[in-house]
Design brief:
The protein is built from 11 helices and 6 strands. It has helices at about 1-15, 25-30, 30-45, 65-70, 75-80, 85-105, 140-145, 155-165, 190-195, 200-205, 220-230; strands at about 15-20, 45-50, 55-60, 135-140, 170-175, 175-180. It has a 3-stranded antiparallel β-sheet, with helices on one face. A 3-stranded antiparallel β-sheet has the order 4-6-5.
């Protein structure tokens, strides 16, 4: 087991994230002893395993106790990965447009092309990940709807989106923005969803013709808690 743990630790350090379908990650998600040893290896270098059962990837992140040592007490840098205010706002908008509809589909056991009307046993399905539930956002429509509020279209297109892609939050392909490996891992759904749904951003999105999914609301935490037990970590 030691060699496999060492290999997985090295791979996580080198890549920062790995897909849930990876054979070693699959083992870490179901084998408690294997995971405990992995967590111990990561903790020895100030890291922790980040796992959201609704995300397609797992990742590694800094443990709280080493934040100051790594970032020299620069709380802003530590908590935002060096993103500017406009870039953070852009990230939150993209998160809302991709992850909130995705989570509604996952909780409803529906895919992008499924309206949920034809499957009587949909709730018995395991949670799905990836392109079957995670939609894309058109770059041109995003710039048209939010460019003026988020620093200007040129700045967003030429700099901000590229930065978010390099950090692993998004994937850009053929004029569309897709969920990146870290978008649903590093941003806390329970905190983000409540602030967006009950905050000003919900009105901003609605004014741009992008109303939030109707199935999300005050009971999301309860849904999340209940669904945790139903998530297949190998799906």
């Amino acid at each position: 087991m030691n060699l496999e743990i060492t290999e997985l630790t090295a791979r996580l350090l080198a890549h920062r994230w790995l897909p849930r379908t990876d054979s070693q990650i699959r083992r870490a998600l179901v084998d408690e002893a294997f995971r405990a040893e992995l967590e111990s290896n990561l903790a020895a270098v100030g890291l922790q395993l980040l796992d959201n059962p609704f995300a397609e990837h797992v990742a590694v992140g800094l443990r709280d106790e080493v934040m100051d040592a790594v970032f020299g007490g620069r709380d802003y840098q530590a908590s935002t990965m060096g993103l500017t205010r406009d870039e953070i706002a852009l990230l939150v908008v993209i998160w809302a447009l991709i992850i909130l509809p995705k989570r509604e589909r996952q909780l409803g056991r529906r895919s992008l092309d499924d309206d949920g009307q034809n499957d009587m046993f949909g709730q018995d399905k395991p949670i799905e990940h990836g392109e079957s539930v995670s939609g894309a956002v058109s770059e041109s429509s995003l710039l048209a709807d939010f460019g003026a509020q988020l620093g200007g279209r040129t700045k967003i297109r030429n700099f901000a989106l590229g930065k978010l892609a390099r950090l692993g939050f998004i994937v850009r392909s053929n004029g569309y923005i897709h969920e990146g490996p870290l978008l649903d891992v590093l941003l806390d759904y329970r905190v983000m969803a409540d602030r967006i749904i009950n905050g000003t951003l919900a009105d901003v999105l609605a004014a741009a013709g992008r109303a939030l999914p109707g199935g999300l609301g005050e009971d999301d935490d309860e849904l999340f808690d209940e669904t945790d037990e139903d998530v297949d970590p190998l799906a």
